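Tutorial handout. Part one gives the primary structure; part two gives the three-dimensional structure as tokens.
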Amino acid sequence: MQFKITKSLIIYLSISTLTFQSYLFSDTTIKDIDDYGVISLMYHRFEENKYPSTNVKMRNFLEHIKIIEENNISFINPKKFEDELKNNKSQRKILLTIDDGFSSFYKNAWPILKEKKIPFILFVSTREVGVFNYMTWDQIREINKEDFVEIGNHSHTHEYLVDENSETIKADIEKSIAIFEKELGVNSNFFSYPFGEYSIEFKNIIKSLNFKYAFGQHSGVMDETKDFYELPRYPINEKYGELERFKSLMKTLPFKYKKIQPEEKYLLQNQNPPKVEIEFYDGIKNLKSLNCFSNEGDKWRQSKINFLNKNTLKIDINEKFIGERGRINCSLRDQSGFWRWLGVQFVVSDKQFKN
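Part two.
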């Protein structure tokens, strides 16, 4: 499977407004943070320098690990995922995820993670296993023997399934499940949407097939209030793996909300631009000091916002989202110097109405 150029650019856009200042961590003791949440990182390729939008240089990857370790941020074992979300919230935590199962992961990153016993989820698309530049099932089984590793499901074909009808989506995922059961003995509880794209229909199919958790590619920090079928991740590549920016990611917190409207993230043309409202939980200090940015009109800009009541934010998107992604990022500086971060992604359909 090869990424389309236009699709690979989604990694660049996902945290493109993450420009806040990086503060020193080493002597930071934050007593007022009651929940650090879990920061989830998404990697793809390792030292495949001709693919900068999905690649990370190994020297930077080693520095990422060093930054995490020096700041006493714990790598969580995916086998204890939900427990880690709900408990010990005063501990800073990271979930490491790797999508696609490229050979460069096995060659370059796996030896380091194995030596350090760093837990992670490796999401694989079953059609691609064993083809050129991808890991084989023998290599995946070797990795899967370790108790700190989870092999997650990333569909069978890694096509743009969100654009397909429900029968096609379900058939694709069912085929991947059958191959998981044949090759590994069991399917995973974890799913990663191809390209981070999902709709209500897609989410419901994943739920019906007994997955417990599903990840997108919108930015943000996980906590127990998040929809377990719309979990955020920070994509890391050559640009967004740059060290000062990576340090900034380590200083993000959950931005807790009750709901986001519209619930449907698959955006038809007759719904574009969307009418966006976010209802936050009570008790977020200085909530009205937040800022939001969007890529409406194919240009990142600060969004006009207003509060309908003390906890409900309306974001005015005045121009249509252009291209394949509509993104909104909202941030609020916490009094601790950390930043609360919330990302929303819409898949922009070229259809005017639903079939």
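Part three, for discussion. Confidence is low (pLDDT under 50) at residues 1-17, 19-29. Residues 166-184 form the longest helix (19 residues).
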